[in-house]
């Protein structure tokens, strides 16, 4: 006995019998009828297509009134037209595929009792004006016509018929003609009877079409409402599941909503299996929404605190009575934001008592340390290889070229855009660059973080060749030394390229700063400049520059100027047009004739490069020495 029990334990389980419906057709008719009566018309049609036995059972004459007619009445559908059984009419009403090619989701046309897709309509529809000439006009009344030839629901002014319908009537008509030609005395009477009966049937179709269309539209609307109700129930059920997990309603509702892709299909009831799948997909989104909301609340609080601090900061700046040329060096809002003492204040808990006085009292030290630290960090970024014992301030060297990082954004509030190159403390001190903070960017917000220009080794090497070309020492030549020489340079790299196509070309004559900018924009890898030594050529360049200056007046359209008597000026601290600044000085400071020489207004150094454009001259190939 024990051995037998062991055998039972070790015996493999028999294979499970696969469930099927093969015995369903053998059930008693009354039982089948009870089952079928519970099905929707669409499901009943699918059941009829499942196998021959079901088809035979469902299309029996006895089923027409017992089942199909009951389904039609239950759905509120109109009576079937001539030539349609109850089963065929239900199939026509509830199927959605094209009558000709089986394309799904096609709109039914009750004027011709067809469902045709756009492609089949284009191929098989014949306009009444194009009715074949070899067909008798009397046939027209025996053919159903429609004025909805396209996929649009709007009716048109043209009437169309299905080509197969025309050919079918033509075939019948030809039969009558053959009988008439054969001398059949009854043929004409039969043709007239056919024409009368067929015309009446077509007329009945035309009269019944609007009613059928209203029913079909009502059914579609009902289906859509039912679908939307199921979708709404699904959304509410999923939301409730997340509520029970402890998530806040605002986060859940923001993710679980009408357009959530995972909830557009499915049943309203959420089973455990469905919930596990949905949770795996949607919970990370809900968590993310909570993180973004909390970050936004934290950011709003920091912005409000920063606003209060900046109010005190701006009042302090006004009290200094310093020229704007000095105040432009002071930290901006985002510079202050990331200072340790300010960051600690901004990150304090929501219910913490905020005391701004220690920071306000230390404004002068904050400004002084900011300028000092910025200058020292920029100095340390200049490589030792670019310096010597005789070198002056590293930031004043003509070979110390700085560029903005690729991640740099425009200043907050649209104050200034970063320069193409930055050189000299005079420009660097007022050049405030920012990049997007990574955490804020990941959360979908734009928060700017201060960043310093970086020492650009490639552009510094270009500047070193220009310094050497004019006969100065690359380790000691300053920006002022190069500006004083006022030399002009030609880009041999551009010239060689242009001479491939023409012997007379238009070339640029660059100042040494413009040459560095040109290298940055056009020849980042390889470039060669040549100093203009020909007196005759330099005279042409000078003349071209004079003409350019007469033709253009960049002061009119460049927002690059500041009032030097007050920091905020006409645009609340942002650079403005020269005309705006002058008008501000006249009205606010009672100075009748403002002048830059007198120090009434200044040009922001970051925008100076916009005023220093190269001049262009025509030159011939023989004027170049490209060796």
Automatic annotation (TrEMBL):
Q: Which CDD domains match?
A: F-box_SF
**Residue span(s) of domain F-box:** 21-71
User: What InterPro entries does this protein's entry cite?
Assistant: F-box-like_dom_sf, F-box_dom
The record ties this protein, via SMART domains, to: FBOX (SM00256)
Q: Which domain of life is it from?
A: Eukaryota
Return the protein name.
F-box domain-containing protein
């Amino acid at each position: 006995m024990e051995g037998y029990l062991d055998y039972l334990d070790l015996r493999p389980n028999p294979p499970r019998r696969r469930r099927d419906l093969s015995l369903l057709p053998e059930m008693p008719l009354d039982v089948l009828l009870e089952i079928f009566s519970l099905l929707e018309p669409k499901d009943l049609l699918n059941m009829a297509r499942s196998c021959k036995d079901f088809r035979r059972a469902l299309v029996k004459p006895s089923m027409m009134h017992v089942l199909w007619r009951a389904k039609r009445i239950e759905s509120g559908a109109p009576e079937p037209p001539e030539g349609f059984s109850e089963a065929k009419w239900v199939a026509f009403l509830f199927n959605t595929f094209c009558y000709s090619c089986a394309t799904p989701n096609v709109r039914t046309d009750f004027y011709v009792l067809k469902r045709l897709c756009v492609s089949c309509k284009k191929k098989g529809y014949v306009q009444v004006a194009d009715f074949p000439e070899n067909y008798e006009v009397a046939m027209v009344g025996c053919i159903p016509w429609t004025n909805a030839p396209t996929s649009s629901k709007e009716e048109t002014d043209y009437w169309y018929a299905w080509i197969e319908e025309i050919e079918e009537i033509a075939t019948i008509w030809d039969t009558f003609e053959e009988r008439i030609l054969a001398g059949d005395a009854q043929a004409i009477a039969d043709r007239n009877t056919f024409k009368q009966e067929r015309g009446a049937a077509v007329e009945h179709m035309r009269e019944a079409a609007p009613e059928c269309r209203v029913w079909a539209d009502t059914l579609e609307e009902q289906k859509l409402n039912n679908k939307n109700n199921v979708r709404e129930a699904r959304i509410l059920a999923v939301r409730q599941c997340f509520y029970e997990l402890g998530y806040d309603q605002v986060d859940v509702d923001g993710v679980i909503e009408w357009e959530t892709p995972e909830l557009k299909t499915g049943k309203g009831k959420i089973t455990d299996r469905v919930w596990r799948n949905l949770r795996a997909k949607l919970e990370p989104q809900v968590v993310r929404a909570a993180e973004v909301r909390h970050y936004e609340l934290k950011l709003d609080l920091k912005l409000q605190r920063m606003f209060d601090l900046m109010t005190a900061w701006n009042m302090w700046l006004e009290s200094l009575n310093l020229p704007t040329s000095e105040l432009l060096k002071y930290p901006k809002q985002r510079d202050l934001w990331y200072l340790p003492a300010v960051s600690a204040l901004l990150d304090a808990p929501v219910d913490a008592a905020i005391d701004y006085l220690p920071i306000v009292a230390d404004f002068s030290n904050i400004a002084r340390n900011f300028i000092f630290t910025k200058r020292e960090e920029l100095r340390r970024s200049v490589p030792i290889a670019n310096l010597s014992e005789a070198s002056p301030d590293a930031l004043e060297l003509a070979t110390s070229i700085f560029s903005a990082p690729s991640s740099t954004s425009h200043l907050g509030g649209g104050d200034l855009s970063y320069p193409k190159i930055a050189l000299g403390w005079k420009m660097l001190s007022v050049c405030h660059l920012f990049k997007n903070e990574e955490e804020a960017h990941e959360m979908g917000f734009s928060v700017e973080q201060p960043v310093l220009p970086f020492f650009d080794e490639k552009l510094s090497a270009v500047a070193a060749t220009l310094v050497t070309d004019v006969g100065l020492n690359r380790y000691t030549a300053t920006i002022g030394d190069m500006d004083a020489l006022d030399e002009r340079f030609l880009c041999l790299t551009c010239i060689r390229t242009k001479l491939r196509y023409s012997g007379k070309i238009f070339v640029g004559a660059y100042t040494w700063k413009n040459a560095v900018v040109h290298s940055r924009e056009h020849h980042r890898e390889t470039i060669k400049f040549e100093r203009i030594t020909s007196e005759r050529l330099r005279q042409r360049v000078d003349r071209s520059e004079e003409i350019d200056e007469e033709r253009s007046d960049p002061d009119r359209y460049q927002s690059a100027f500041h009032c030097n008597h007050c920091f905020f000026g006409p645009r609340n601290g942002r650079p403005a047009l020269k005309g705006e600044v002058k008008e501000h000085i006249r009205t606010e400071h009672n100075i009748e004739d403002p002048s830059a020489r007198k120090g009434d207004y200044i040009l922001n150094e970051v925008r100076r490069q916009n005023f220093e454009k190269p001049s262009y001259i025509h030159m011939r190939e023989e004027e170049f020495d490209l060796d």
